[in-house]
Amino acid sequence: MAVGATAAKLHLSSAAAAARRPSMLHLVAVAALCSLSYLLGIWHHGGFSAAPAAGAGAAVSIATAVSCASPTPTLSSSTPSTPAGPLDFAAHHTAEGMEEVEAAQRQRAYDACPAKYSEYTPCEDVERSLKFSRDRLVYRERHCPASDAERLRCLVPAPKGYRNPFPWPTSRDVAWFANVPHKELTVEKAVQNWIRVDGDKFRFPGGGTMFPRGAGAYIDDIGKIIPLHDGSIRTALDTGCGVASWGAYLLSRNILAMSFAPRDSHEAQVQFALERGVPAMIGVLASNRLTYPARSFDMAHCSRCLIPWQLYDGLYLIEIDRVLRPGGYWILSGPPINWKKHYKGWARTTEDLNEEQQAIEAVAKSLCWKKVKEAGDIAIWQKPTNHIHCKTMHKVIKSPRFCSSQNPDAAWYNKMEACITPLPEVSDIKEVAGGELKKWPERLTAVPPRIASGSIEGVTEEMFVEDTELWKKRVGHYKSVISQFGQKGRYRNLLDMNAKFGGFAAALVSDPVWVMNMVPTVGNSTTLGVIYERGLIGSYQDWCEGMSTYPRTYDLIHADSVFTLYNGRCEMENILLEMDRILRPEGTVIIRDDVDLLVKIKSIADGMRWNSQIVDHEDGPLVREKLLLVVKTYWTLGDNEQ
User: Fold this and answer.
1) How far apart are CA 373 and CA 381, in angstroms?
2) Cis before residue 52, ω within 30 degrees of 0?
3) Paired strand residues for 329
4) Which residues contact residue 596 at a Cβ distance below 8 angstroms, ignoring those fewer than 6 apart?
5) Does residue 397 or residue 275 have the better pLDDT?
6) What's the CA gap between 375 and 523, in Å, rounded?
7) Quick one: pLDDT band at residue 171, thresholds 50, 70, 90?
8) 166: how many CB neighbours lie within 10 A of its CB?
């Protein structure tokens, strides 16, 4: 009975196993389905084609097979699949016309301007200036192109035979004639020892109208009256500077002068100064304020500058008072000083000259200036360190009044007013209004009083210190990627288009260079006062307009975030063409900005005879901000006749 039951169980197990075993019919059905799927896949991926002949080199498409025998499908990737035709990567749904615009931008090459524009200054154009009033020299102020139709869309050429200037300090005394081919001053000022021609060079003996013994001896005479050697005087303003010999000889005394003169009958006087490697700009005292903030200069100077200080209610001397620091000095030589000795040579009457001097003395007294000394041909006055006594005096003497509403630092097309710019309030008669400065060179890195007092909104002492260290790092990076940056004599005249606190210039203070620190009027322009408190120089500037300087002024231009700042305000092309105008042949440009903007800038720059390259930020390739490094190629009128 037990044996029979066991046999029955074995029989049932065998029957169940047989039921689970696939039959031949099932296997054939599965194979047929796999084959059909395979054939459909081939047809879907390109259909059936004859095999290529051996050696024909035609691409063979191998479909990826799925193994029917495996419970988990696997990809066979011995050879990648190749599409039947080439891929089209072009965008077909862009904004209408954009492709054509971008193509035109990439392909544009800028022509050279005609020869007559070799010394073109867009905002001091001689022909345009004649449309304006000659009263008070208004026609010599800035008058920029009124529309895009007046703008030059070409590259301002260097004169034929142009050569790189001599390196500093040789350049102080000699320049190439071909670079500034004007002999007018050598004739007009021959007896005054300004400048003379020596073969293919100009020589600058260092003389001047009122310093025939030379600028060095003249400065020594000034130094016998006021302290020029202890670091208390660092920034100076030279009005009507000629060829800037006064500023040139102050540099060896660690005094940095901003020299200016109008573009007038003394052809190219500012251009000569710049060719010598001396800071200078085109400028004039007429109706607008000088483009500097209040309390900028430790010393101002006029040596026979022909400015009528006594006229217009003392307006021009009042403007000098605005830009002088508390305790600053004003130096005057030439008419009418020492008129008893010089009246015959000046071809003026003693009565006329005496009346002029008395009028100047009266204006100075009304500004509460103290006359320090008159010695020989030099007279020097000093501005008070605060206005406590001055305000008391003006309760009796009503003219000129104190200004009540104007921002003392506003100086971009702002009109001068015959009122005294009040100094910041003090609590003690001995206190220096606005804060006392350290002596040079400590003042360069000390926290400026404008920041320490909190008068610049949103700027702290910590931010200033961090900015100073940041620019040391950045300038070090520049020197690592531009091998000639640290080479002595390669660069002299530098421009920082967006200087902020002057950190770029401060990091280069030990190099034989000077930096013009421009603060854009569209940004936080209050920082220009900080730059002067550090012992550096600069000016306000709107980069939608031309700069008040001659072509070929700068060896190196630095533009930090300038194109981000002006994005949407004016055309990128206009700013780049102005940079090219003021850059010397073989000069260098460093543009620091967002990578997307740099790509657009490079597309324009490549048509301007610039060689350019985008390199990484000092913190590495993952930072969006990059550097565009540029070298302007050498070319002159001789290479591009018009």
Assistant:
1) 7
2) no
3) 299, 382
4) none
5) 275
6) 45
7) very high
8) 19
Contact present, 493 and 514 (Cβ < 8 Å): yes
Rounded CA separation 494/534 (Å): 17
- If you search the block for the tokens 């208004």, which residue do you land on? 138
Give the mean model confidence (pLDDT) for residues 488-506. Answer: 97
Residues 6+ apart with CB under 8 A from 583: 552, 553, 554, 557, 589, 632
Helix (H) or strand (E) segment spanning residue 318: helix 315-323
Distance, CA of 520 to chain centre: 9
Beta carbons of 580 and 635 less than 8 angstroms apart: no
User: Would you call 582 exposed, middle or buried from its count of C-beta atoms within 10 A (0-12, 13-18, 19+)?
Assistant: buried
Q: What is the CB neighbour count within 10 angstroms for residue 434? A: 23
Q: Which amino acid is at 606?
A: D
Residue whose tokens read 């030589």: 333
Backbone angles phi, psi at 256, to 5 degrees: -105, 115
Cβ–Cβ under 8 Å, residues 62 and 81: yes
Cα–Cα dist 418/406, whole Å:
12
Could you give the 3-state DSSP secondary structure of residue 594? strand
355 neighbors 327 (Cβ within 8 angstroms): no
Helix axes 595-605, 98-107, angle to 10 degrees: 60
Amino acid letter for position 375: A
Token pair, residue 432, equals: 């220096």
CA-based diameter of the chain, in Å? 160
Read off the pLDDT of residues 583-632 as tens digits, 9 standing for 90 and up: 999 999 999 999 999 999 999 999 999 999 999 999 999 999 999 999 99
Contact indicator for 76, 58 with CB cutoff of 8 Å: no
Distance CA 524, CA 531 (A): 13
Tell me the three state secondary structure of residue 535: coil
- Asked if residue 308 lies in contact with residue 279, where contact means CB atoms within 8 angstroms, the answer is no
Instruction: In whole angstroms, give the CA distance from residue 63 to residue 121.
Output: 70
Tokens of 97: 């016309």
Note the pLDDT tens digit of each residue in 404-431.
Answer: 977 999 999 999 999 999 999 999 999 9
Query: pLDDT grade, residue 54 (50/70/90)?
Result: very low
Helix (H) or strand (E) holding 279: none
Nearest-5° Cα angle at 49, 45 to 51: 115
Q: Give the strand pairing for 297-303 and 235-239.
A: parallel
Long-range contacts (CB closer than 8 Å, 24 or more residues apart) made by 367-375: 367/314, 367/317, 367/318, 367/321, 367/400, 367/420, 368/393, 369/321, 369/330, 372/225, 372/226, 372/329, 373/225, 374/337, 374/338, 375/221, 375/224, 375/225
Residue 280: per-residue pLDDT: 97
Strands of 71-193 (E only): list them: 174-176
Tokens of 321: 């008072």
Asked if 501 and 520 touch (Cβ cutoff 8 Å), the reply is no
Q: What distance in Å separates the CA atoms of residue 281 and residue 365, rounded to the nearest whole number?
A: 30
Per-residue confidence (pLDDT) for residue 69, from 0 to 100: 36
Better-scored residue on pLDDT, 236 or 306: 236
**pLDDT tens per residue across span 132-149:** 999 999 999 999 998 888
Radius of gyration in angstroms for the set of CA atoms belonging to the chain, rounded to a whole number: 37
Asked whether the predicted pLDDT for residue 189 surpasses 80, the reply is: no
Where is pLDDT greater, at 241 or 165?
165
H/E run at residue 48: none
Handedness of CA 118, 121, 127, 128 (dihedral sign): positive
Q: Which pLDDT tens digit goes with each residue over 263-294?
A: 875 568 899 999 999 999 999 999 999 999 99
